[in-house]
Amino acid sequence: MTRAGWAARTRALAVAALAVAALAARPALAGASAVPARRARARLAAAAVVRVDHCVLHDLSRATFDYATGRSVPGRTLDVEVRYRVARRTSTGRAGGGPARPRPGVLFAPGYDNDPDGYGELLDAWARAGLVVVGVSFPDTNPVAVAAARDGDPEDDLVNQPADMAFLERSVVEAADGTSAACAVLHRLVDPRELALAGQSDGGATVAMLAYDQQYAGLVGGGAGGPDVRAAIVMSGNEVGPGPYEATVGDPALLVVQSATDPCNPPQASVALYDAVVQRDRWFLDIHAADHLGPYDGSDPAASAVVARVTTRFLLLELRGAVPAAGFLAYANASPAVASLTTGPSAPAMPVLEQNPAAC
Fold first, then answer.
1. pLDDT category, 12, cuts 50, 70, 90?
2. For residue 301, cis peptide bond before it (omega within 30 degrees of 0)
3. Whole-structure pTM value
4. How far apart (Å, rounded) are the C-alpha atoms in residues 125 and 239?
5. Alpha-carbon gap, residue 290 to 270, rounded angstroms
6. CA–CA separation, 232 vs 230, rounded Å?
7. What is the rounded average pLDDT of the residues 33-46?
8. Which domains does the chain have, with CATH numbers?
9. What DSSP string describes 133-162?
10. DSSP assignment of 176-211, as one string?
11. Is the C or the N end of the chain the one with fewer CB within 10 Å?
């Protein structure tokens, strides 16, 4: 998660709080998806490719500290990558068109010194399943900005990233319904009533702050036509905001993913987050032995395969209004030597490790 140290980061971010109104409400969930529908989606995914488009969003309401120059500059610039499934290339060599109707969307936050491309295999798996994946590169913590930094620690900008994700949510809604041309590819491509948040490492911490830290509650307004965030996936993330972290009515379902042998984001950090968010619809995927990035960037094939399968199924169920149940547990626990999924009032017992920034 951090170069400066996990404990130091927690203390540094605990001083920050943002005030605003409540997150979008989440409606009651319906029954599980039918097996034939899942098989049809699998056949469609196998006959498709993932298209990647790019756009740039500008939030003029806030400033960015430039760690290369040591000066504050107006605005926050978000480079956005949009992944979605299209038909396989035709005889002309061109990819087929996008979906005929708006699809559920996943807003993805990468970790420090990373960008969406660093998680390409995982994000492609979500896109092939029929989801529109909108990944963001944060202004100060993307690889180019980190490499250019000369004045201070760019990771200190983590405190501003929940507001970046909230701005991304609003921008997706405006682009989807055509009220903004800032990211035109999203028009009629994504359904703003069916959104999820996902992030890894500092990106996971960002998602957790936006979804469950009460000091950040309300950065995105709900109501008619507003975004409906139904699910949140926190992968190797933790509680770093001022808190308290808790679930309130309408908060998204939670899936926590954590390796038992990751000293960058120690297991006890994910355990604390899971235990703080007390709600019925929460799940914990324990990767038994993996490093900090391997389960998410494809470098650990066995763990990556499990993470892709479980997170994809979780997203499809939640975004289509179903409550994951016993069938989801059986599906997710098909590789017990690699990982195990649990649910219930407490996180599974996991090792307590000393945080080691060198493992990040």
1. very low
2. no
3. 0.86
4. 27
5. 15
6. 7
7. 56
8. 6-359 (3.40.50.1820)
9. EEEEE-TTTSHHHHHH--SS-GGGGGGGHH
10. HTTS--TTGGGTTTEEEEEEEEEEETHHHHHHHHHH
11. C
